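Researcher: Next sequence.
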Amino acid sequence: MRDKFKNLPLRSGVGIVVLNKDNEVFVAKRIDNPNNFWQMPQGGVDQGEDFLTAAYRELEEETSIKNVKLIDELDGFITYYLPDHLLGIIWKGRYKGQKQKWFVMKFLGKDSEINIKTENPEFLDWKWAKLDQITKLVVDFKLNVYQEVQKKVKNILVNRS
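Model: Next structure:
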């Protein structure tokens, strides 16, 4: 099955690590995944849009969060590939995975400002999680992404303290 999709491109995307005052990470449970998997806000980059603009847009579209301060942009890109059962289905079958640019942002608002019941909701629930927990919450095909993000964010937090 994978051979059929091997020539598909990777989707250009962004991911956002939103940290609260206690450096806990915003995670949310997807509507389209009935299992107990949580993820950080992430999404595609529109044509002509730069990565940081896409990150702010995706964050607001998915969570209504606007009140953030950029802490850092993670070096390089992190890629994941869709598992066979999702190839040809996700993103209307146009991509085999996603190559993401990740940003770390500090949430400056109050939890009451967070609203996942957006115009096109993607999440059922949200919570703050310890940075060490994010790799235990994520769907397995994104595990490598969350491991790398976790390591890089830990380094940023250590170097900032």
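Model: Residues 15 and 102 are 5 Å apart (CA to CA). The mean pLDDT is 93.
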